[in-house]
Fold:
Amino acid sequence: MPKVTIDAKTVEVPNGTLVVEAAKKAGVEIPVFCYHPKLASVGMCRMCLVEVGTPRRGKDGQIEMDANGNPAIAWMPKLQTACTTVISDGMAVRTDSAQVADARRSVVEFLLTSHPLDCPICDKGGECPLQNLTMAYGPGKSRFPVESKFHNEKRVPLGDLIMLDRERCIQCSRCIRFQDELADDHVLGFQARGRGIEIVSLSTPEFDSKFSGNTIDICPVGALTSRDFRLSARVWEVHDYPSVCAHCSVGCNLLICERDHQIKRIVPRENEAVNAIWICDKGRFAHHFTTAPDRLTTPLVRKNGSLQPASWDDALDAIVAKFAEIKKQSGASALAGLGGDRTANEDLYLFQKLFRQVLGSNNLEHRVGWSASNVGVDLVRMYGAGADTNLGALDKSVTALVIGADPEEEQPVIRLRLTRSVRNFGLNLIVANGRVTKLASHAKQSIVYRYGAESAFLLGMIRTILDEGLENKEFIGARVNNLDAVRKSIEPFTVEHCAELCDVKPEKIRDAARLIAQSPSFLILYGREAMAAQQHDPAITSSIETLLLITGHVGRVNNGLIALYPHNNSTGAMDFGLLPTHSAGRVKSDVKGLSAREMLSGKARALYVMACDPAADGNFTKPDLLVVQDLFLTETAKLADVVLPAQSFAERDGTLTNTERRVQLFRAAIKPIGESKPDWWIVAEIAKRLGATWHYRNSAEIMDEIAATVPLYAGVTYAALSDNVMMPRPPYGQGNPSDEPTEIAMGELENVSSGKQWLSVAESDASAKFELFWNEPRGEGREAKNELVLAVARSLYDRGTLVGKTKIVQPRVPAPYVEINSQDAEQIGVGDGARVRVSFDSRVIELNARVDGHVPPGTVLVPNNLDGTAALPMGAWVKIEKV
Amino acid sequence: MTLPDLGAIVKGMSVTLREMFNPPATIQYPEVKKPVFPRFRGRHELKRHENGLEKCIGCSLCAAACPADAIYVEPAEQTDAARYSPGERYAKRYEINLIRCIFCGFCEEACPTGAIILEHDYELSYYNRRDAIITKDKLLVPPPAPDQSTPRAIKDPGNLYAAIPPVKGGVE
Structure:
């Protein structure tokens, strides 16, 4: 590797490294404003000017030596920007000379001529790079009269979430570059020129991006500030608690900034393996549900037909008496538990332990309101992507197939990280879906198949690999059984036939298959839309398995399967057996319990609902005993006999398992609301009253038990999970700023990761044998009917309880709509924005039409988490009429 | 008893005798109060501008400088329709715990607008610990005229500098 000497310190760095990065390695600080390690360099601010020289070569091409026998350095006549200069072998850099100090002083002085210096009222004050670098390198006094300061607009709303102060802006363009390069929303730009240059929004509505909040973090001045946090506390007064996001399944690491037991703001916590330094706006802003005024504060017991406040003892005793009575009358099989996949692992573990060990019932489920098919419980346990697979750093040796997923809306930060992998490291991305999603614009191959024929597309690829002899024969010979039977069954499915079934050109299927087979590493990310289709077509599961096994891409880092689940602990709910078919540790159970549909249709006499709201989706029959444990008085809770107030993620400790099977710890940040209790405490109290000898004093003790008894979670204790938890700001005592630097050091700590991933079977057992299965695909001909097929999507900002409590994001929640292809729209005779009536099965809903979308002809798309669009059947035939 | 001992007594008594003719140092507090030195540091006051707007902008730098953690500030955003102070920010809550306060004057030094001044009130005793926490309405000095109290709507809304009165003698 090339050697570089920076201020007499010599370091070895890889080719292509920038001087500013090499300096970090040498422990030399080069101040920057516009440079950011996650973004491309532009050299706009000139703060990083340094002296650069290269070895002097003689006429013979040999390096000349000086009097001391060291290589003579030919210094460049002028200063160079360290953020755009790439190192070369033998390069010398001086950052401590008078010339460099003078340049830095001048740059700061120049920047401050147009800066209002209103630090006392600026939200960035205390963590502001401009403040810090002015103190460190600035002149201390300006030669310019204060009257000559350039003034510009203050308090300019840039959308609903961000406030812009044009005076403070130093035009570094970090926000514009973040939006262009990573968020892929080209919504910000520069306008005018010279001193009057200003940031403007180019979109309607303004700053229309799901990642806009990240520009607050990377802004090196106080130009972009949060409208939520705005002027509500100073950054050194808040206490930071490490947490994990409560929304989607990415499990972004957060810091909750608390003051006076109120969440003042949420900022990302660096974890290169999960969210790098980014979070989406939902995670950042939609936290107000934790302290919403309508949170449940006391237990409620139904007396004389209405829910009355009661003490914990009364409520719990009422539940236990009724549980015992029903168990005596109808047996344990009449008791059922419905646990939400938004609760922590400790709660889920105790919940299933209560039912399986104390009550003796296997009626457990967590999949309410989404596909109840086998959504990869076994697939993920067998072939889950290798631990330490970093979706943000997949290079050109990796091919990733994203099938039936829309990460932009459902797992935004995964979309962001895949974009970074494609742009910066050359990941080969194949995006396959029934429509064009945002991720598809980065794909090497974008495939739009016909909804309902996902398996035909996968089979076409398998067929190509087998026909062309691209399979991994060594791996198959050693570890895969039953390939011959599959070869035989697949006989009628030629690539052309598959192509016809899924409406994709055969050459596209072959290209994708070749790319996968020839790639050293291969990842499948499959999403909710594929899971929903799986319900009707089990061939999807077997095809995914076959594709991974015949190419041998399992059990290694960057290989295997990632199932993109909807909620923050869907994986945990499966790990701990909130399933009628599997018990804790994804072990198949002998007795099959009731499914969610059976539970809700009245087959269970007693139903214990923890943190979910099945009644909101309709089709709910109230059982004899309904116990609901939740944050709010949900639709289900309104029908309940007993309602128990639970605590949100901000009030308690716990662990969550993200969609990549990474177990992460979150800590309490605020005081409990009212008399609310953690979910695990409530479950344990009920168990105790039923005669169990449970003694859990805190959630850490439950995790210790899990680590000792559930093999998947062996060794995953709180102590192990707290390793490497990065706190970007130093802790402060007594509200006083410490002497340590307060600048966010984020983005400086590449390769920081925390949390623990459990290992899939393929990974932990290098000699495991695998069985191939064959399921007949069920692709139907769609043209026959004069109707459209319904694709169910999800919107990031929904009408759910959690987002609904945050006023500031409400304008971002779309009005319910249906996306129609322009061809179909023309036939129906509707235009963009028209009101249409959508009828399917026996339901009719009225929606706004969107004709500018990305759905193919014959398909309509409706997000199912907006007003009045709950519980839509994926793949149903719909009729659309003009209102 | 020796002669030197007697001399000491006479010497001591002469001091007593001399002091009998001096005026008494005791004053009849609280009827009579001694004036304090100009730079005496007593209870804090929050000052106003000449136009009645509060000088305090809610920046919390006083709280940050306070070695005893006696000051609590909760800032908030303000608009021209209900203006407390110049600029975007004002102190929604401002409290000083006078039992904690050590009257060091660091808050005064830290204040960028000269809003908090340790004045000459030293009569700080309370029947109740809670009463020792004085709130913004007690700290704030009365407005120069009855119609200049805060919050109030200001003329020329939207003008960034409308709320800031001119500084006498130019900018420092």
The CA atoms of residues 362 and 834 of chain A lie 49 Å apart. DSSP finds 27 helices and 39 strands in chain A. The interface with chain B takes residues 118, 120-121, 125, 146-147, 151, 154-155, 230-234, 236-237, 260, 734-737 of chain A (CB under 8 Å).
